[in-house]
Amino acid sequence: MTEPKSEQLRTIVHVLRHGEVHNPRGILYGRLPGFALSVTGRAQAAAVAKALAGHDITHVIASPLERAQETATPIAAAHGLSVETDEDLIEAGNTFEGLRVSVGDGALRKPRHWWKLRDPFTPSWGEPYLQIAHRMLAAVNKARAEAAGHEAVVVSHQLPVWTLRRFLQGQRLWHDPRQRQCSLASLTSLVYLGDTLVDIVYSEPAGQSDPRVTGA
Q1: Measured between alpha carbons, how far is 216 from 204 in angstroms, rounded to an integer?
Q2: What confidence tens digit (pLDDT) does each residue in 99-132 have?
Q3: Domains of the chain by range and CATH?
Q4: Where would you tag: which of 51, 55, 149, 182 has the fewest CB atoms within 10 A of its CB?
Q5: pTM of the predicted model, to two decimals?
Q6: Cβ-based burial of 84 (10 A; exposed 0-12, middle 13-18, buried ≥19)
Q7: Strand, coil or helix: what is 49?
Q8: Which of 164, 201, 29, 175 is nearest to 101 (CA)?
Q9: Which residues 6+ apart lie within 8 Å of 171 measured at CB?
Q10: Burial of 197 (0-12, 13-18, 19+ CB in 10 A)
């Protein structure tokens, strides 16, 4: 039987948000070290691994941050793989890192922080949306090339995943964070035929979570 031409190979890259993090102080931890999955987060990672157990996964790649590596581990183990690391999947940089930023308390009540909010379209308080989109797309393209004809899982973080999805859908990148469709341990699955993206499928194998909860 003749193999399909490479440009017609069907490849799926599952972009996975990490599970719930142990964060009793409710801070925006960003790229800070030492924030591991909670008990619930580990259960969420196991639920995703179970949901993907029957899939043809050949690569599992994660952000270097602990919570992403831990989320990736049971998926990789279920397929006899090791977890690869890609710096392009890391959380977005944010000047509020290490602070509480929920509505009604924390850093946003202090005038000295208000200047950081001067430009919500870039945004002025963190890594530019377009830069996030480009590095995430680079990570996805590398995963797609490595897993050509099969499936890959890349584990990242809420804002990078949501920014990538909006970029691929041709939507403006600035947005209301309360409207993100990117629950904890959710999958944004990118389906390709050859180099062409033909579908984006969103699913929540570990259930829904509230996008308004900061530092989840």
Answers
A1: 16
A2: 666 655 565 666 665 645 666 768 766 889 999 9
A3: 6-22+37-92+127-203 (3.40.50.1240)
A4: 149
A5: 0.88
A6: middle
A7: helix
A8: 29
A9: none
A10: middle
